[in-house]
Amino acid sequence: MIEQRYRWKNKHLRTHVSVLDGETSPTILLKNATYLNQTFRKWMKANIWIYQDRIVYVGDNLPSHIKNCEIIDCTGQILVPGYIEPHAHPFQLYNPHTLAEYASQFGTTTIISDNMPLVLNFKKREAFSLLRDLRNIPTTMFWWCRFDSQTEILHEEETFSHSNIKSWLEHDAVLQGGELTGWPKLLDGDDMMLHWIQEAKRMRKQIEGHFPGASEKTLAKMMLLGADSDHEAINGEEVYNRLMQGYMVSLRHSSIRPDLPKLLDDMKRLGIDAYDRMMLNTDGATSPFYEQGITDMLIRIAIEKGIPVIDAYNMATVNISRYYNIDHLHGNIATGRVANINFLESKENPTPVSVLAKGKWVKRDGAKVEGVYPSMDWSEYGLKPLELNWHLTMDDLQFSMPFGIKMENSVITKPYSLSIDISGDELEMTHDESFFTLIDRQGKWRINTLLKGFASKLHALASSFSNTGDIILIGKNKQDMLTAFNRMKELGGGIVLVENGEIVCELPLPLGGIMSGLPIEELMIAEKTLFAELKKRGYDFNDPIYSLLFFSSTHLPYIRVTQQGMYDVMNKTVLFPTIMR
To answer: What residue stretches are annotated with the Adenine deaminase C-terminal domain (predicted)?
Structure first.
C-alpha cells in the first residue's frame, strides 16, 4: 500500500501541527533539557515537546495545552539522540528482535542490519513480512541488500537473481547495497553487480564496501565503481587512505576485531582530527562482547581516547544519519525527528539511565521497562525447529582427502598436507587435528576433510549454525560425532558437544537451526559455557562462533569448505567437489 511508504500519514502530520497551535496536547514534555544540538555543535537548553513517536518542537516555549501530558523536569540530566548501529549482523545466535530489545537498554535505538540470513533462509515473502512486523517494535530497523552469498553456494544465480536483488533494493527499509564481499568479481568485470550498484545509486542508497587490506589503487577503483564507505581499516594508515579516497570510514570494535582503541591512537599519531566522515560500529559481535554495552561502549572508548565529546557522540548519531540520508528522521534532537532520546547522568558517561525509543520509555531511571517489545511468533516467517528427515551413518564419515585446512586465527584457514593416519574411527589427543565434515541440511551432499588448530581434545561438536545453514561436524571420535549430530537433530538445531557418548554442552537454536529465542542476557551465559568447554579442549582463538560461521566464507583467504566443495579463494577454483550421498 502506498501509505506505507510514508513515516506518518497526512492526518498524523496535521495532528502534529495542531500541537503547536495549542489544539492538541503533547504526550511528553521535557522541560529544562540540556541537550546536544548538532547544528550549533553545542550543549544547549530547551523544552522538547513530543507527540507519540515524534518530536514536534524544540525551543524556549512551553505548550499551552498539557492535558494528559507527561511532564518531566530534565534539570541535571544530559540528553543526546538515540544511538545508531550502522553495521549489525543480527543473527549471531541471537535474533533481530532480541538484539534490538537488549541494545535499547544501552541507548542504541536504530539498527542497520545485514539481510544475508534472510536471503539464504527465508522465502522473500516471509522475509518482507518480518521487516514489516519489526516496524512495530520501539527500535527502528533498517537493512542492507547483499549482492552475493559470501561463499560458493549451489544455484547462487537463483538466490541472488536480478528480480530478488531489485525487490530488496526497492524496499523502503533498505538503505544500502552491500557489504561488497564479492568485490573481486566486480573488478573482474561482473556487470550485473555493477548494474545493481548503479540502481542503488539511482535510488539514493549507499554502497558499503568490504575491502580488508585493499591498496590505495584498489580503494580508488572501488570508489569509481560506486563504493561509499568501508569498515575494514585495522590501523591509522588504512583510515587515512580511505579518507583520502573520499570514503565514509566506519571504525570497528567487535568481538573478532576489537580495533577501536588502536585506530584512535593511530589517528592521533597521524594528526587525523576531523571526524565528520567517521562512524562507529560493532560488526555483529557475539553476545558476550555486548555485556558491557553496545554503541555506548564505543562512545566511551572514543571519549577516553581524547576524541572531543561532541564528535564522539556524532560518530554514533548524526554522522551516520547524514550519511544514510535519514537525518530528517534520525540522529539528532530537533523538530520533526523520531523521538529517540537518551538521558545521561553526565556528558562523559554515554550509558543512559533512561531511554525513549519512538516516544516510548524502554528504560526508566536505570531499570528496563517490561512489555514494550511484543513477542514474536517466528513460525509465521517459516522459522521452525529443524526437521532433518535423513540419517547420518559411519559411511558418511570416511576421510581420504590428501590435505586439510589449518586455522591461522579465528577465521583464516590455509591448506596443509596430512601427515597422520586418518583411516581409523578415532584420532589421537596428542595433536590438534580433527575430522571435519560439512553436510547439506537436506542430506544431499557432504565433504570431509581434516581441520588443524581448532582443538586438540574435542571428541565431537555438531552445529547447525554456519554461513549457509548447512551442518558442521568436528571431532576426534566418529561415534561421538554421530551422537552429537543426533542430539542436535533432536533439539531442532543447535550446537552440541559430546565426549565419550555423553553430552557435555548444548546450545539449542530452535529458530531454523540458526538462532536462539533466548534473551541476550541468557544467551550470554550459554555462550560463555560453550566457550569455556571448547577452551578446555584446546580452542585458543578469540571467537568460536565466528569460526563456525566463516568456514565457508569465501570473502576471506585462503581455503574454504563450501557447498560446491573445497574452494581455493585466491585462484577462484574448486579443488575437490562435494560428494553426493
So the answer is: 411-572
